[in-house]
Specification:
By secondary structure, the protein is α+β, with helices and mostly antiparallel strands. Helices cover 52% and strands 18% of the residues. The chain contains 14 helices and twelve strands. The strands form three sheets. The protein has a seven-stranded antiparallel β-sheet with strand order 5-6-7-11-10-9-8, with helices on both faces. A three-stranded antiparallel β-sheet has the order 3-4-12. Strands 1-2 form a two-stranded antiparallel sheet. The longest helix is centred in the C-terminal third of the chain and has 27 residues. It is elongated.
Length: 442
């Protein structure tokens, strides 16, 4: 006697023909998403657009723009390397005009601790490299690169969505309950919009507003995912049977805006998001603590970088001569010279950290020019703190100019007067003042 095989029971079709057609098309894309083709072309095209928009906008030199692109690439390559190491698929990098760059990939079935490491692998390498450069006294172009490395990567550690720090905090803390996640996104979006508007960084403000607009949809996706938790769906879409895919699509259909229906690619993306919510598990205490320590280490490195930046590079004392204007002076950094066409006035200046050193000269005529300059720097342009005697009748002042304690020396004779200024709280400012010499006429 032979037994007949049990009949296969197929999941019921959707009663709505459009819903059935959309399910079939979206389900195929959900299981077999198309890979991004010609990733090199995407990177190159987006880079050209980023550079073109930046140059049109202005505000940066060509060198600064080149270093900025390099710094952004280092950041995104860190993310991309992490994605490749931890099993992300379809990894690519592209630039976003007026904003920066991004690395993207599909993280299906990837453990959440790996997601956290991917987020940290973007800012940490550049932050460490920039801090080391500042600590070792990088100057010139290297100092510009160091500042860009620290500024961009430290900014990305801020706990604001969609920055790396915001995504990490959402992963570790706020994704444990949908209401806390929505609350965090609202606060982060408001902070981003308000901060962008205040700093006139309009791209950030627009991103904040865009996040706020999408909050209702995200709320619906979270609610739909929570309802499917009890179904114990597998994390990998390839392991879903048809009945599970239909159940998932039905949840998406109920919360998706009507204008998105008939667009399989959008519907497949929504299925991906709902499945991610339905199958995600909170990170363990040990993992959460370890990732948080990694983030806190980034903040600590940023503080160290700020301290190194404020201290400036090590002083390199040398005597510099300007034979054209017949003076010499000791300075802790290499000076630059600029001139104007106003009464022969010029400026010979150097900077070391927060300290500024400069010699300016101006043509004067007979009369109380020394008293006039003294009045200008002690009362009109600054606030006099102390006056001390110098040989040959020179005026020497300690004053506050633009919030900085400044040493001012007024020296010269008709028709040229010199004003030497050493601004900052560095005690070596006195060394600069006392080192100023007028060269003998040739």
């Amino acid at each position: 006697m032979t037994t007949e095989p049990a009949p296969v029971t197929l999941p019921p079709r959707f009663a709505d023909d459009q819903q059935e057609r959309d399910f079939l098309a979206a389900s195929e894309l959900f299981i077999n998403p198309p890979r991004v083709q010609e990733k090199s072309r995407l990177l190159l095209t987006s880079l050209v657009m980023f550079v073109a928009v930046s140059m049109i906008r202005g505000g940066s030199s060509v060198v600064e723009l080149v270093t900025l692109v390099g710094v952004l690439m280092v950041h995104e390559l860190g993310h991309a390397l992490g994605m490749l190491l931890f099993g992300y698929s379809d990894v690519r990098i592209f630039f976003i005009p007026l904003f920066g760059a991004a690395a993207a990939g599909r993280k299906r079935g990837v453990a959440r601790w790996k997601e956290g490491l991917v987020l940290l692998m973007g800012p940490m390498p550049g932050l460490v490299a920039g801090t080391i450069l500042l600590l070792t006294g990088a100057d010139g172009l290297l100092r510009t690169v160091a500042l860009q490395l620290v500024a961009i990567n430290a900014f990305n550690l801020l706990p604001l969505a969609p920055l790396d720090g915001g995504q990490l905090f959402q992963l570790l803390l706020f994704s444990r309950h949908r209401h806390t996640e929505i609350g965090f996104q609202v606060i982060a979006a408001l902070a981003l919009a308000a901060g962008g508007a205040y700093l006139k960084l309009w791209v950030l403000a627009i991103i904040g507003v865009f996040i706020l607009i999408r909050i209702p949809l995200r709320k619906s996706v979270l609610a739909a995912g929570d309802k499917l938790r009890m179904a114990n769906l597998p994390r990998d879409p390839l392991n879903l049977d048809e009945a599970q895919r239909r159940s998932l699509f039905s949840s998406v259909w109920d919360v998706m805006p009507a204008q998105w229906r008939g667009k399989p690619a959008v519907e497949a993306a929504q299925m991906d998001q709902v499945l991610d919510v339905a199958t995600r598990q909170p990170t363990g205490i040990g993992v959460s603590l370890g990732l948080f320590v990694g983030w806190a280490a980034g903040i600590g490195i940023t503080v160290l970088a700020v301290i190194a930046f404020r201290a400036g590079p090590p002083a390199n004392w040398q005597r510099y001569e300007d034979k054209a204007h017949q003076f010499s002076i000791e300075l802790p950094a290499e000076p630059t010279e600029s001139t104007t066409k106003v009464a022969g006035q010029g400026l010979f200046s150097a900077m070391l950290g927060r300290n500024e050193f400069g010699i300016t000269w101006v043509r004067v005529t007979d009369g109380p020019w020394r008293e006039n300059l003294r009045e200008a720097f002690s009362h009109k342009q600054g606030t006099l703190i102390e006056e001390y005697p110098m040989p040959d009748g020179d005026s020497a002042l300690i004053t506050e100019i633009a919030g900085k304690r400044s040493y001012v020396l007024i020296r010269g004779e008709t028709p040229v007067a010199f004003v030497v200024i050493a601004a900052g709280r560095d005690a070596d400012a006195e060394r600069v003042i006392h080192s100023f010499r007028l060269l003998p006429h040739q």
